[in-house]
Structures are given as C-alpha cells and as structure tokens.
C-alpha cells in the first residue's frame, strides 16, 4: 500500500480512499479547485509542476502520472540495487585480490629473508674457516721462522765458539813460544847488572 501526500500552502488535509486504485490519499482540499505545490510518495519528495489543479477531471491523470513516476523510481531503484551489488562484488574481489597480493608480498619477503639468512650463515662459515686457516698458516709460518732463526743462531754460536777455541789455542802457543825468549832476556839483564863497575 502506497501513501500519497499532496500539499499546498493551505495546510488543510483530509483522508480519502481511492477504491479504484486502492490508494490511501492524503489530499489538500483548501478549495474546490485547490492548487498543489509538491507531491510525496512514501514520504519521499517527488517534484511536480506548480500550477495544476486537483479537479475531478485531472485526478485520474495525476494518479496515472504518479504510478508512472513510481514505476520509473522502482526501475531506478532496481538499477541502483544492481549497481550496488556489482559495486559490492567489485569491492569484495578487490579486497580478496589485495589480501592475495599482501600475502604474496609477505611470502616473498619471508623467502628473501630466509635466503639472506642462509647466505649470511654460509658467509660466516667461510669467514671462520678462512680466519682459522690464516691463523694456522701464520702459526706454521711463525714456527718455521723461529726454528729457522734458532738454527741460524745455533750455527753462528758454534762457528763463534770454534773461532774462539782457535784463537785461544793460538794464544797458548804464542805464550809458550815466548817463554824461552823471555828467559834469555832476563838472564842477559842480570849479567849486565853484575858487570857494571861500582861508582
């Protein structure tokens, strides 16, 4: 059941029953040929030209116009409802696609993070191995260097000891060879002292 309200500036109303069209009509009857300013269908304003009268001759035409307008409004409402459904479906698809994209991005980020962590672990292992190898190589080289220096020092010490022994031996020989000469000199000095005349 549709409720049609017709108003004008008189603000006088009455309830009428349209048996033929089965409508409840609230009609402004300020005068026998009232003029209306606006029409409302289910409390929604419907624009109408100002200046028509509501005589018995044009009441049926008015109702026909209102029914036609109602049909147009219903068609527009169906179109709007269809557009609303399409909009909701599009929004749902967009949301699902956005969720899928976000999930895909998260999966890619997680995969990249795992790969980076794996590379970091491998790099750390390689660095540790390189450092350990370098340390062992350094220790080996250092040990070899110390051993080489020790051998060189030992050889030098032996060589110097040998030379010192030779020098000592030669000094001993020279000392023993010099003893007769020294004894002869001492004897000659004594003789010369005894032969000198006393003053």
What would the average pLDDT be, to the nearest integer? 69
Q: How is the largest sheet built, in terms of strand order?
A: 2-3-1-4-5
Radius of gyration: 66 Å
Shape, per Cα inertia axes: rod-shaped
Classification by helices and strands: alpha+beta
Distance between the termini: 186 Å
The largest pleated sheet is described as: 5 strands, mixed
Topology, number of strands: 5
Region (Disordered): 175-199
Describe the structure.
Strands 2-3-1-4-5 form a five-stranded mixed sheet, covered by helices on one side. 70% of the residues lie in helices and 12% in strands. 3% of the residues are buried. It contains one helix and five strands; from the N terminus they run E-E-E-E-E-H. The chain has a domain at 1-54. A hairpin with a 2-residue loop joins strand 4 and strand 5 (44-46). It is of the alpha+beta class and 199 residues long.
Give the topology, please:
Layout: E1 3-7, E2 13-18, E3 23-28, E4 38-41, E5 44-46, H1 56-195
Parallel strand pairs: 1-3
Antiparallel strand pairs: 1-4, 2-3, 4-5
TL;DR?
This protein has one helix at residues 56-195, and strands at residues 3-7, 13-18, 23-28, 38-41, 44-46. With 199 residues, it is α+β, with helices and mostly antiparallel strands. The protein has a domain at 1-54.
